[in-house]
Amino acid sequence: MHANNETGVVQDIERLAPIVKANGSLLHVDAVQSAGRLTLDMQQWPVDLLSLSAHKLYGPKGVGALYVRARPRVRLQALLHGGDQEGRLRPGTVPTHQVVGMGEAYRLAAEEAEADNRRTAALKQRLWHRLVELDGVFRNGAEDACAPHIINLAFAGVHGEALAAELQGLAVASGSACTSASAAPSHVLRAMGVPDQLAHSSLRFSFGRFSTEQDVDDAVEIVRAGVERLRRFSPIWRAYRNGEALATLYDRAG
Ligand SMILES: *Cc1c(COP(=O)(O)O)cnc(C)c1O
């Protein structure tokens, strides 16, 4: 993944590519979260495959694109069979309206990216600066390593899913949609070294072209109320306020 969907953390493709190549592997980059927001330099990147999805960038649902490097040539095996379209890789009639919709969404993104990024980064900072005042709020993912539109926060002493349920009117997530059927903490946060308990306390917030300062201020109030409500019943939070280190508390809680 170029930009991670849960944390916004951006991977350094130019540094990772040689490691992949040295092992004789192809490099497939999932650029769904970064395309249209960050620069994807296909001339410089030794990337073999790169995937895109329209609906994360205000295009229609149900359409995406796969970039396949022509030289050196990447050979693909069809997963779907039946028709000869798209070099026998994708049988069926091309849905023109979907393709045009995606193209237009990406064209608009190219025009708007700079302004969108500036705006979403400012909104993200606004949310962070106000929520960090709550104390016991941590940011998952280094500030300068993240895409402008995603922030992932841990609220000590609070269960992320319980908090998400408290936040009426806010669309936040405690993990990705892909793992929403699982109660396990986010594998992304675990891989980053976030302790399980804190990973369980984390929520992802994202910002878009149509988010406003008023949205952020409303969100801050809703989150603040939810966190304070849940912390009243949280023994971990009480111990933390009494000066115990979070790491110790979480170690003890397993
Ligand atoms: C949403 C998302 C996908 C899946 O794309 P869909 O078109 O919704 O299936 C893949 N990768 C990342 C990083 C995403 O955010």
What's the structural blueprint in terms of helices and strands?
Blueprint: H1 13-22, E1 28-30, E2 49-53, E3 64-68, H2 85-88, H3 96-131, E4 137-139, E5 150-155, H4 160-166, H5 187-191, H6 196-200, E6 202-206, H7 213-231, H8 235-241, H9 246-253
Helix pairs in contact: 3-7
The structure holds pyridoxal-5'-phosphate.
Report on the architecture of this protein.
With 254 residues, the protein is of the alpha+beta class. The chain folds into two domains: 13-109, Aspartate Aminotransferase, domain 2 (3-Layer(aba) Sandwich), CATH 3.40.640.10; 114-253, Aspartate Aminotransferase, domain 1 (Alpha-Beta Complex), CATH 3.90.1150. 40% of the residues lie in helices and 11% in strands. It has nine helices and six strands; from the N terminus they run H-E-E-E-H-H-E-E-H-H-H-E-H-H-H. The chain has helices at 13-22, 85-88, 96-131, 160-166, 187-191, 196-200, 213-231, 235-241, 246-253; strands at 28-30, 49-53, 64-68, 137-139, 150-155, 202-206. The protein has a three-stranded mixed sheet with strand order 1-2-3, with no helix packed on it. Strands 4-5-6 form a three-stranded antiparallel sheet. Helix 3 (96-131) crosses helix 7 (213-231). It is elongated, with a radius of gyration of 21 Å. The chain binds pyridoxal-5'-phosphate. Residues 1, 5, 30, 32-33, 53, 55-56, 64 line the site of pyridoxal-5'-phosphate.
